[in-house]
Amino acid sequence: MKLPVHRWFRYSAGFSAEWVTHLIKAQRGSEHLRILDPFAGSGTTLLAAESCGVRCIGFEPHPFVYRIARAKLSWQSDTAQLREKYQQVLRIAAQRQPETDRSDSPLLQKCYTPENLAKLDALRRTYTELSASHDDGGMWELIWLGITGILRICSTAGTAQWQYVLPRKKKARVSDAFCAFEQKMEEIISDIRRVKSLNWKQTASVFSTDARNPEIESDAKFDWVITSPPYPNNYDYADATRLEMTFWGEITGWKDLQSVVRKYLLHSCSQHAAAEKLRLDDLLQNRLLKPICGQLSQACNELAEIRLTKGGKKTYHTMAAAYFLDLAKVFHALRPLCRENAHLCFVIGDSAPYGVYLAVDEWLGQLAVSAGFKGYSFEKIRDRNTKWKNRKHTVPLHEGRLWIEG
Questions:
Q1: Is residue 18 part of a domain?
Q2: pLDDT digits (tens, 9 = 90+) for 67-116
Q3: Where is the DNA methylase N-4/N-6 domain positioned along the sequence (predicted)?
Q4: Does 244 fall in a domain?
Q5: Which run of H or E residues covers position 183?
Q6: pLDDT over 70 (residue 393)
Q7: DSSP string, 35-54
Q8: Cβ–Cβ < 8 Å for 289, 327
């Protein structure tokens, strides 16, 4: 990823910022639009809107990812002052290294050499001390993001598809923490100068709130919703930032993810559904699922039977029901936030846990209409599950854009 600002931290399964920019610019009178992204992630839609000078609001319930998006929106910072501050952090950190007190974290010890962990921890402690005594928060958020953005390239651990950390899989080459930090901060400074020269505008903001029940104060309604919600594919978005959150002391280990992160997210992974001990019948009886209840019940009951024959006995049956109930709540929350005749675009993919097909685009379209939107259509972008040698089923899948008319 080479897009300025976007590249400061790549979040899992992001969608195309270029496409969002093209979509915005294609709208007549786009400078007057108000755009909403209820699943803002690390800020793809927000930044694309700012590149077009268009007002945009994002919701992001993942506390760590929300902070990443908020930091990216600080791109208007003064680059000379930013360089002065990051160099101060680097200078003080180099003087205090090799002290470290991270012996309490087995994950960090497995993922870093003692030398690099000591340097990273020196950066962390120096940042924490200096940022606490200054009020220019946006600039310090960029330094926080600079440190966060190098944690993977400085680690000996491998990463699986997307961003799970694999401590047992070792990389042959890792970056020195101090060198990587300086390079990342200079990349940030270079990008800031570039986007200022491109006349980006400060038009976006992000809120730490849940799209199922958003808490925002805004009388104005939105013309467009452009977003990509989590797919029901068992990807654990909480685990995606476990290394980073452990490093910053926000969690002590995997067991903390449910209480600190997952409870705020959509039910898109079986770990979440299992932890909450959800009951299938209670979920399916919710009136919001009435438009798809027959098909969804059939799929969930089949999953409930199949899981008993599997070693892992994953709770895909309750995950699927909870996922569609979550999205039904999102559509009902979005309807009063959108103008009459608003346009919504959800970049989504279908799923087939244990080989049981979930018609995500069709079912979400029906849920949207039930929430008060006028109609929907689906535009396929690509086929999925066609190339992986280790795929767990042979059900053909696809990814595309669900267009909803308001």
A1: no
A2: 999 999 999 999 999 999 999 999 999 998 677 778 789 999 999 999 99
A3: 35-69
A4: no
A5: helix 177-197
A6: no
A7: EEESS-TTTHHHHHHHHHT-
A8: no
Tell whether 156 is covered by a domain: yes
Q: Are 324 and 292 in contact (CB under 8 A)?
A: yes
d(CA 173, CA 204): 38
**What is residue 316's predicted lDDT score, i.e. its pLDDT?**
94
Q: In whole angstroms, how far apart are CA 286 and each of 182, 302, 321, 364?
A: 53, 19, 10, 16
68 touches 11 (CB < 8 A): yes
Kindly state whether residue 125 falls inside one of the protein's structural domains.
Answer: yes
**Percent of the chain topping pLDDT 90:** 77
Identify the bridge partners of residue 34 per DSSP, sorted by sequence position: 55
Q: How far apart are CA 394 and CA 349, in angstroms?
A: 16
Q: Which residues are bridge partners to 37 per DSSP? A: 58
Kindly give, in sequence order, each residue whose CB lies less than 8 Å from that of residue 162, ignoring residues fewer than 6 positions away.
12, 13, 235, 240
Phi, psi angles (nearest 5°) of residue 305: -75, -45
CA 374 to CA 324: how far, in whole Å?
A: 19
Radius of gyration of the CA atoms of the chain, in A: 22
pLDDT digits (tens, 9 = 90+) for 132-189: 987 777 999 999 999 999 999 999 998 754 567 888 788 878 999 999 999 999 999 9
Nearest to 250 by CA among 131, 242, 147: 242
How does pLDDT run across 107-144, given as a tens digit for each residue?
A: 999 999 999 999 999 999 999 999 998 777 799 999 99
| Number of domains making up the chain | 1
The token duo for 307 is: 């899981």
Interatomic CA distance for residues 322 and 301, integer angstroms: 13
Mean residue pLDDT of the chain comes to 92
DSSP string, 241-294: GHHHHHHTTS-SSGGGHHHHTGGGS-S-SHHHHHHTT--HHHHHT-GGGGGGHH
- Between 342 and 220, whose confidence is greater? 342
- Concatenate the DSSP letters of all residues of 316-362 into one string: HHHHHHHHHHHHHHHHHHHGGGEEEEEEEEEEEE-B-GGG--B-HHH
| Burial class of residue 332 (count of CB atoms within 10 Å of its CB; 0-12, 13-18, 19+) | middle
**Domain with 114 in it:** 79-197
Q: 204-207 and 55-59 as β-strands: parallel, antiparallel, unpaired?
A: parallel
Is residue 364's pLDDT more than 50? yes
Measured CA to CA, the distance from residue 67 to residue 243 in angstroms comes to: 15
- Beta strands, E only, 72-175: 157-159, 165-170
